[in-house]
Amino acid sequence: MATATNARVPNVTKVNRRLDRWNGRKKAVSTRLVYAMNARTIARATWNQAQSRAARLAAAAVDAGSKSDAPEPVPEVPLETTVGVDYTTLRDRLRAGEWEEADNETRRLLIVLAGADAQKRGWVYFTEVKNISVADLGTMDKLWVAYSKGNYGYSVQRKIWLQCKKEWGPFFKKIDWTTGGNNTYRKWPEDFQWRADAAKGHLPLTNALRGTQLITAIFEHPAIAGADGPKAAPKQKKLFNF
Question: What is the mean pLDDT of residues 87-95?
Answer without folding.
Answer: 98
